[in-house]
Each structure stands twice: as C-alpha cells, then as structure tokens.
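Forum > Structural Biology > Help requests

Title: Can anyone predict the 3D structure of Peroxiredoxin?

Hi all, first post here. I have the sequence for Peroxiredoxin but no way to get a structure on my laptop. I'd be grateful if someone could post the structure tokens.
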Amino acid sequence: MKFLKFDKGEKIPEFKLVDQNEEEVTLDKFEGKNVLLSFHPLAWTSVCRNQMQELEDNYQEFEKNNTVPLGISVDPVPSKSAWADTLGLENLKLVSDFWPHGELATKLGIFIKKKGISGRVNILVNDQGEILWAKEYEVPELPDIDEVLKAVADNA
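Reply #1:
Sure, ran it for you. Structure tokens for Peroxiredoxin below:
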C-alpha cells in the first residue's frame, strides 16, 4: 500500500482548511512548530474515535516536542464540531477537508475515490511543509501512538 505522493524531505502542497470551531487552519499558523497531519477516514467510527482520543490524551507530549497534532478527515465542519463535543476534546483540532471534497487528501495522494474518504495516514511536517516522517495504515488499523510519539520526539 503506497498512496502518499510525497517522500521524506519533500514539501506538501499549501492548504487552507477549517477546524471544528470554524477557525482557519494553515501551516503558517504554526510557525516554528512541527505539525502532525493525522488523517482518519470518517468521524463517528470506532477506530477513528480511538485515533483522535489518543492524540488528545497525549497532547502534552506533543507540546513538549514542539508539535501540533491535527485530526483531518473529509467530514463537514458541523459534524467535526459535534464529534469534538462528544469526544470531550479540549486541545485537539479536528480539521475538515470537506470542500472541495477531499482536496488536500487528493493532492497528497491519499484520497480513496471509490469510497469518498482519505486513507488512514500520519504525516509529520515542519512549518515549511517538509515531510519529516510519514506512515500509512490499513483503513481498519489503529496507528500505534507510541510509534507516532517516537517519530515526533525524534524530529523535535
């Protein structure tokens, strides 16, 4: 399985998305920090819930390593907002790649067209959009948070 169009050291395309609070999210908002783009196929599913909950539960570890985690899917903002409330998120931004539908996921090569969702992928970038680390997972697979945190720490 190799979806991601970019390799370590390459720059991802610039993006402008919106989070669950209808705030604009771009890389330049995180100047001097690394950003974990944690793509999950759909809100309201168990594996995606667990993936986002692990990011929230480890938020201080991300901060300690100068990294901002973002949970990204093709769900619309109102769904992201309701889901964030249901999950009780206090720190994690849930970002919508809804319209144009899956545009960022498509540019990255991780959009699964026949299903209308992104793949499950973690991409760690610096504030310039250069890939520091990336890993793709099978859609039903929960990413190993310890592996993610190690990659974050190794690139802090």
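Residues 10-154 form a domain with the Glutaredoxin fold (CATH 3.40.30.10). Residues 46-57 form the longest helix (12 residues).
Shout if anything looks off.
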